[in-house]
């Protein structure tokens, strides 16, 4: 039995973590403060923007700008990390796929395989050498399986 390519093992490992990440992401999305996390945490601590500025060695107006940047989603991760540390908090950052990675790989491989097989199948049909629908699906699945093991061809 051939070894499973590394990217497929990595996808399977991440897929096992996705349910918990999706659940956490949904909770965070639904509880995101309108003014942003920085402002919400700062106010909940009873801390003025000037006090936070002093902790970060920034002017009060820079804190106001950081809070605005967070609200408009233009703040950098580095800035968020610095502010989180100043608020004795932890920055949590993740990109959470909408569907399982293995499913994405399989879907993409099948799409690409179907696109590659279609012109050949059409030519064969014109020459009266056409494949049956089952044979065509077998060729697509066979090519899709090969493509799944060669990730660089999937995402060109």
What are the SSEs and their pairings?
Blueprint: H1 6-31, H2 37-44, H3 49-56, H4 60-71, H5 77-86, H6 101-126, H7 133-148, H8 151-154
Helix pairs in contact: 3-4, 6-7
How much is the radius of gyration in Å? 25 Å
Proportion of residues in β-strands: under 5%
Query: Main beta sheet: strand number and arrangement?
Result: none
N-to-C CA distance: 28 Å
What would the principal axes of the Cα set say about the shape? elongated
SS element count, helices = 8
Helical content band: over 70%
> Which structural class do the helices and strands define?
mainly alpha
Q: Stretches where pLDDT falls below 50 for ≥5 residues? A: none
Order of helix and strand elements from N to C terminus? HHHHHHHH
Summarize it.
The protein is mostly helical. Helices cover 71% and strands 0% of the residues. It contains 8 helices and no strands.
Keywords:
mainly alpha; 0% strand; 156 residues; 2 domains; elongated
